[in-house]
């Protein structure tokens, strides 16, 4: 499966004069039957839970996302620059 990269949207956000996004991702099991039904998976299926917030340069939160993706349907790739 080819990875989907979210860095383009983050770069566009910063280029437009906004601050950096922050957040995190957790691999977890889908715990409730309603959530599993909405995702089209069985309860207990592994999923990646992504929480992300975008801030203005002044630190004001302006957009937030709470995303749950079944682990079998995607590959999440993070690219972290390393200064030498």
What does the model show?
The protein is α+β, with helices and mostly antiparallel strands. It has a single domain (7-73), classed as Chorismate lyase-like (Chorismate lyase), CATH 3.40.1410.10. The protein is 19% helix and 35% strand. The protein contains 2 helices and 3 strands. The protein has helices at residues 7-15, 33-39, and strands at 21-29, 46-55, 61-70. The chain has a 3-stranded antiparallel beta sheet, with no helix packed on it. The longest helix has 9 residues, at 7-15. The model is unreliable at 1-8 (pLDDT under 50).
Q: What is the level-2 CATH architecture name?
A: 3-Layer(aba) Sandwich
Task: Using the coordinates above, name the CATH class.
Answer: Alpha Beta
Fourth-level CATH superfamily: Chorismate lyase-like
Kindly state the percentage of residues in helix: 10-25%
Please tally the helical runs, counting DSSP H or I stretches of 4 or more residues.
2
Q: What is Rg?
A: 15 Å
Give the low-pLDDT segments: 1-8
Count of strand segments:
3
Query: Helix/strand/pairing class, anyone?
Result: alpha+beta
Distance between the termini: 31 Å
Overall average pLDDT: 77
Strand percentage: 25-35%
Strand order of the largest sheet: 1-2-3
What is the CATH topology descriptor? Chorismate lyase
Taken from the alpha-carbon principal axes, the silhouette is: flat
Integer tally of domains: 1
Largest sheet: 3 strands, antiparallel
Give me some keywords for this one.
84 residues, alpha+beta, Chorismate lyase, three-stranded antiparallel β-sheet, 2 helices
């Amino acid at each position: 499966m080819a990875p989907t990269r979210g860095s383009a949207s983050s770069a566009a956000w910063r280029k437009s004069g906004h601050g950096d996004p922050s957040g995190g991702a957790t691999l977890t099991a889908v715990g409730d039957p309603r959530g599993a039904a909405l995702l089209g998976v069985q309860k207990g299926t592994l999923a990646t839970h992504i929480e992300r917030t975008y801030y203005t340069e002044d630190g004001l939160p302006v957009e937030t996302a709470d995303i749950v993706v079944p682990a079998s349907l995607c590959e999440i790739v993070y690219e972290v620059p390393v200064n030498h």
